[in-house]
Design goal:
The protein is mainly alpha-helical. The protein is 79% helix and 0% strand. The protein folds into 2 domains: 86 residues, RNA polymerase sigma factor, region 2, helix turn helix motif (Rna Polymerase Sigma Factor, Chain: A, Orthogonal Bundle); 79 residues, Winged helix-like DNA-binding domain superfamily/Winged helix DNA-binding domain (Arc Repressor Mutant, subunit A, Orthogonal Bundle).
Length: 179
């Protein structure tokens, strides 16, 4: 039955994609979340995995396990996420952990990225900006933010997810335009 679903997916069948999504999404999200330790980011990455699955559906080998294929995409997406997160943190911290002297270009990039992030955050809706600030700047947990603002934890997670998406898009555009 799995092979038939995969074949239908390869042929562009939306119902087959939906069935595979429903069957594997939670598993992929839990797998990613176990590595990166962030439910919000894990959900985004899991969504990206299924976007890649749909976009590359014609290259899927129907004789191989869709499970293994999804986990390979998830593993690669997770490693890329961690690599980018590490680079972002290095730039935002203003210095490298290996204590090398920063070049003027690295200092410039760090300042530009920090400024882009600050500008993006200031343009967010008030509640999203407040939630992001409490989470990222003050290090308050999602549950504590929800209690403090008298909103649900899910609302906090959704707003953080939207904030991170906005920031990621701006930083990605910066790198695309600059490099």
């Amino acid at each position: 039955m799995e092979k038939a679903k995969v074949e239908a997916l390869c042929n562009g069948n939306h119902k087959a994609f939906e069935d595979i999504f429903i069957l594997y999404f939670r598993r992929v999200k839990v797998f990613i979340g176990g590595i990166i330790k962030s439910d919000v980011d894990a959900e985004e990455l899991a969504q990206d995995v299924f976007i890649k699955l749909w976009l590359n559906r014609e290259q899927i080998d129907v004789n191989k396990s869709i499970n293994a294929y999804l986990y390979a995409i998830a593993r690669n997406a997770t490693f890329n996420y961690l690599k980018h997160k590490n680079v972002e943190q290095s730039y935002l911290s203003g210095y490298k952990q290996n204590e090398d002297v920063d070049t003027p270009e690295e200092i410039y990039f760090a300042r530009e990225i920090k400024l882009l992030i600050e500008m993006t955050v200031t343009q967010m809706p008030v509640q999203r900006r407040r939630i992001y600030s409490l989470s990222r700047d003050k290090g308050i947990s999602n549950e504590d933010i929800a209690n403090q603002l008298n909103i649900s934890k899910k609302t906090v997670e959704n707003q953080l997810s939207l904030a991170v998406k906005e920031i990621r898009k701006v930083v990605s555009l910066f790198f695309l335009l600059y490099f």
